[in-house]
Structures are given as structure tokens and as C-alpha cells.
Amino acid sequence: MTHRFADKEYPVPSNDSPILLDQVTLAYGAHQVLDGLSLAVPAGSITALLGGNGAGKSTTLSVLLGFARADGGRVAICGIDPASDPDGARRRIAYLPENVALYEHLSAVENADYLLALSGERQARGAICEALAAAGLQERAWDQRLDGFSKGMRQKVAIAVALLRQVPVLLLDEPTSGLDPRATGDFNALVMQVRDRGTAVLMVTHDLLSAADVADRIAFLEAGRVRHAVVAEGPDRFDVRALHARFQVGEAQAQA
Questions:
Q1: What angle do CA 2, 5, 8 make, to 5 degrees?
Q2: Is the pLDDT of residue 5 over 70?
Q3: pLDDT: is 75 or 120 the higher one?
Q4: End-to-end CA distance of the chain
Q5: Contact 206, 250 (CB under 8 A)
Q6: pLDDT surpassing 50 at residue 240
């Protein structure tokens, strides 16, 4: 099986995609970080965004979260510009950073309860425990302090909160970094569960194999714009060798 990579910008499916960037530009001084970036993630789908260091991945997330303002183009979360209405956009986003910020002195249940309260979506203990179980966290860990948790266990607490929030957008920043293969597989299964309820998921990652396992679309970010993209097809989904070759090209260009 072979795939052809697009030789043009990643197509924007529609203006009502929950995650939308259309010809977005952003520069820091003389350095052009985003250079006409176009990317859209439809509801009920997972897009993996890959790129080398300096390609603009972190800046893309910052723009979507409203932490950075684009110089030009359109950015929208469920139709809301996160630069002009960051609170409105963030209420529709669950964000999982590479290093999950949880409270060491609180238990898994207490962390989930506190984070949900901050977002104005407090849940009963029973619902929190159900979400932790769905996330694969063993019952004996629910009331344990997080200072003894592995990264995989922390990720399960964070994804449980995302499951409970029922928001239309999930942003993931290097979510499988530091996870062993089993924990990565468990995490990917949870992300697909979130996708299947209609959430638009954008996963920024260096983990090509994990992206190939879970994503519906893989886009390659190079020098601030999507240069190539491929959609999962057939039982094999992706030609991993071709993906790896494309990824190496992008990293070589980033280092040049």
C-alpha cells in the first residue's frame, strides 16, 4: 500500500471545524514562526501534527490557546477567536501539556475534583471514579497522593478530567513522551474514546509510531506551515516507511 503526500497546504474542510487555522502568520521580530499555516480538525477526528524543533508546533498550540496573537490569518476554536475571547475559547478546550500540572499533595480524585471546579463543571465523586476507571487508573490509586505517581498514571488522571469535561476540543502536547509502549497503547485507546464521542483532537508529537496508530490524519509542519499531509486509508492505515522518510526530510530541513 502506498500513499501520496499532498504537495500543497493542508486543506481546510470547512469553516465550522472546531479547530481552524487559515493562513495564519506570526513573527517574533525578524523570525517568521508561522508562515501561512492552514490546518483544520473536524469534529470526531484526530489530527497528528509532526515537525522538527523550531517548526512552529508549540507556537501553534499557543495561538489556539490564546497565549499568542497571530499577526494575520484566521484562528478559531468552535468559531471563537482565542485572541479576542480567550476565556470563551478555553471553555471549549481540554489541554494536556507534555508535563501535566497536577497537585502532588492531593489524591487523584481530589485533583480531578479541583480542576473540574476551576472549569465550572464540578462532578460527583461517583462520576470522577467512573472516569478514572475508564482511564485505566487502578482503584487503589484513586485516593493516593500524586507524589508517588508515574507519568503514565498522571496522564490517566488528566485524561479522566478531559473525559468528564465533555468539551468539543482536545489539544495534546507530546502526550506519549516518556511513556512505555503499554502505557502509550492505553493512552491512545483513551484518545480514540474521546474522538468517538465527537471531539476534535489535535496531537502535537514527535512520536511517529504513536501518531500512525491513533491519528486519522497526519500533517507535517515545516518552517511554519503544513507542507505535506496524509489521511489514514485501508486496514494498514498508513505507510509507516513513507511517513518516516517524510519526517526525516522535515527534520533535515529544520536543521539546515
A1: 160
A2: no
A3: 75
A4: 31
A5: no
A6: yes
